[in-house]
Design a protein that fits this description.
Strand order of the largest sheet: 1-11-8-7-5-6
Helix content: 40-55%
Order of helices and strands: EHEHEHEHHHEHEHEEEEHEH
CATH architecture of the largest domain: 3-Layer(aba) Sandwich
Shape: globular
Strand content: 15-25%
Radius of gyration: 20 Å
Number of domains: 2
CATH topology of the largest domain: Rossmann fold
Amino acid sequence: MGLADVHRVPGRVGAQRGAPLDGITISAQLRALAATRVRERALAGRRAPVLATVLVGQDPSIQAYVDAKHHACTEVGILSFDHRLAADTSAAELEQVIRSLNGNTTVDGILLQLPLPTGLDPLALTNLIAPEKDVDGLTTTNTGALWRGDDGLPPCTPLGVIELLERSRVPLASRHVVIIGRSNLIAKPLAAMLLAREATVTICDAKTRFLKEICRHAQILVIAAGTPSAIGAAHVSPGTVVIDIGAVRTHEGPNEALDFAAVRPLASASTPVPGGVGPMTIACLLLNTLKAAEISERKRERG
């Protein structure tokens, strides 16, 4: 079988063509799992995990997103509290907050909400978070662990994509996955996770030559790029599983990177927006917070 035939072996999920990959239902399953694990901890005499978020600025949409994370924590029994800082907070002030949370033994997970206001270096500030508390999985230490195949805290959105695919029974081993996007937040860590599951991964962006042809060879196509309305029917072969990470924002408001109406009839399964990857991200944050609590406990037991 040659490269031109690869798209004829799609990653089927046993559903009718165009069926949605239901992030709402699967994220509810993960939340239920998190709640069960919190209850089990309580029965074993262990305290509830604690998440601390840090939000800089007053963007209403970002504030709502952080509020949703705290609401999810409350639902499953994870304790959480929020540091909300002014948009003109200096790097030194933000560093002091992060270091204080690192030293707080009652805090298991720390999440510095991105994006940060202009003038604050997201990589430098994220790297101040203790790796064992880095529930967003974005520190250099956790990134390295991910690529080495070591145990660490993976980024929540890529983990959500993996959970969505695996729990929807989409095969990954030996499948050709094309990711459109090169970000350190989503595309690169997702590639590492897929490689660990024996998938073959191609990473592209909007400037990639012959992008349509490359995408048509994908059995699983992941759109993780901020190019509105760029991916349509010409990029998708019949039977492809299509994952749209979410909407991008333009001057006219939210816009999709995927022409969903044109692609859905071709796809064997696809993620709706909303209701696809978005709910999975928050559910995986809960699981990461639980894992961070377990890491902290093992660390304390070792002395």
